[in-house]
Write a structure and sequence with these properties.
Elements: H1 10-16, H2 22-25, H3 43-54, H4 72-85, E1 89-93, H5 96-111, E2 115-119, H6 124-132, E3 138-142, H7 147-150, E4 155-161, H8 173-180, E5 185-188, H9 193-196, E6 206-210, E7 224-228, H10 230-243, H11 249-258, H12 262-282, E8 287-291, E9 314-319, H13 322-332, E10 337-338, E11 348-350, E12 370-374, H14 380-392
Helix pairs in contact: 1-4, 4-11, 5-10, 13-14
The structure holds pyridoxal-5'-phosphate (PLP).
The site of pyridoxal-5'-phosphate has 15 residues, from helix 5 and helix 6.
């Protein structure tokens, strides 16, 4: 196994990370450990292990005690993702929102403040949990250049997403980290994946993924993960033990199995998305506007090449025929599935205002005539033909 100093290409790391001990174990594929509980060596050692795990330490020889405290199959995926994000550790959760909840609670507890600064746009669920104050936080929503002014003595966390869901707006992570000073910055890296962007290299304290999307990549896992240093990981595991938003071991296994193909999938999906964005912007019937970082004007701060390796595989379009056009197009697509979620091998289309961003305050909600496309691994020609026929019948 190559060491994790990252002289190694991400494709190699994606295949080998989290598998160092397999030869020693005498197996080729990682074992799945579904134990809900574990045999205890003695009352004293069991008690000691429980205390350490509840304090957020990783399991050691004294045992895992109980699945809510530790699971080795989930730990393999965590180790692998940390290698890809170039962070010390990672902590897995039951969903992206469970990960976001834990990150907010960990930051609140750690910094003893309850104020959050959040850069819009954000995924609807993230926006909602912050706007409602459900977790006891108070949030100032602002633009990236307003972060320094928005920070106050009680600020415990700065949250951003780049490229953002659904309009693919991009944020200069290093600039926000500078503006945030000593406050931790959390970057939702779901859209870019570590293949295209590694926010920890630009100073992000926590890098969050809805692992449900590209990391899983096959539409059959719900999970979340935060990549970070050892200290944040410890704080996150403490929250995970108490709140119980744990990742299931089968999800951990499937995610770990999906990582070796992540670089191939993301790059292939991105290539098709580039071609489709070009088609949509120049030739497609009835498209008013295309949101895609790779198009002229799509990257005003020139972050591609500096922060982000490529524009990714998400495209949002605005239709000439408005909301009725959006209804007709989603109904007429045959290859594009009409469904929320993204980042899988199959292409999907959905209307953010009606679905993923429905819970966002009206003044911050995306326009009702936007459609978000997640480009999968199908052939470009077939996807283009599907969009052409659907867009041609939007009236
Ligand atoms: C889907 C999504 C989430 C939430 O993740 P779940 O796994 O659905 O809980 C968070 N952020 C982004 C950018 C997402 O797309």
């Amino acid at each position: 196994m190559p060491d994790q100093t990252f002289q190694v290409d991400i494709r190699t790391l994606a295949v080998h990370a989290g598998r160092q001990d397999l030869t020693e174990l005498g197996v080729h594929a990682p074992p799945i450990d579904l134990s809900s509980t574990y045999p205890l060596p003695s009352i004293a050692d069991g008690g000691l292990a429980l205390e350490e795990l509840a304090g957020g330490s990783p399991a050691d020889a004294k045992g895992a005690v109980y699945q809510r405290l530790w699971n080795p199959t989930v730990a393999r995926f965590e180790q692998s993702l940390a290698a890809l994000e170039r962070t010390e550790q990672a902590v897995g959760f039951a969903s992206g929102m469970a990960a976001m909840t834990a990150a907010i609670l960990a930051a609140r507890h750690h910094n003893e403040g309850s104020h959050v600064v959040a850069i819009r746009p954000l995924y609807g669920g993230t926006d909602h949990v912050l706007a409602t104050g459900l977790l006891g936080t108070e949030t100032t929503f602002c633009a990236a250049h307003e972060v320094a002014d928005a920070i106050g003595p009680e600020t415990c966390l700065v949250v951003l997403e780049t490229p953002a869901n659904p309009t693919l707006e991009m944020v200069d992570i290093a600039a926000v980290v500078r503006a945030a000073g000593t406050r931790p910055v959390l970057v939702d890296n779901t859209f870019a994946t570590p293949v295209l962007q590694r926010p920890a290299e630009f100073g992000a304290a926590m890098v969050l993924h809805s692992a449900t999307k590209y990391l899983g990549g096959h539409g059959d896992v719900l999970a979340g993960v935060v990549a970070c240093d050892q200290q944040w990981a410890q704080a996150l595991r403490r929250v995970r033990v108490v709140t119980g938003g744990v990742m299931h071991p089968l999800s951990g296994y499937l995610l770990h199995r999906s990582l070796p193909t992540l670089p191939l999938r993301v790059r292939a999906q991105q290539e098709t998305a580039r071609q489709l964005a070009d088609y949509l912007a120049t030739e497609a019937p009835g498209v008013e506007r295309v949101f895609y970082p790779g198009l002229p004007g799509g990257d005003p701060e020139e972050l591609i090449g500096r922060q982000l390796a490529g524009p990714g595989a998400m495209i949002t379009i605005q239709l000439a025929a408005g909301t009725s056009g959006a209804e007709n197009v989603t109904n007429r697509c045959r290859l594009f599935g009409h469904a929320v979620s993204l980042g899988g091998v199959d292409s999907l289309i959905q209307c953010p205002a009606a679905l993923t961003h429905r819970v966002v305050d009206e003044q911050a909600r995306p326009a009702a005539d936007l459609l978000r496309l997640s480009i999968g691994l199908e052939a470009y020609e077939d996807l283009r033909a599907d969009l052409a026929q659907a867009l041609g019948q939007q009236a």
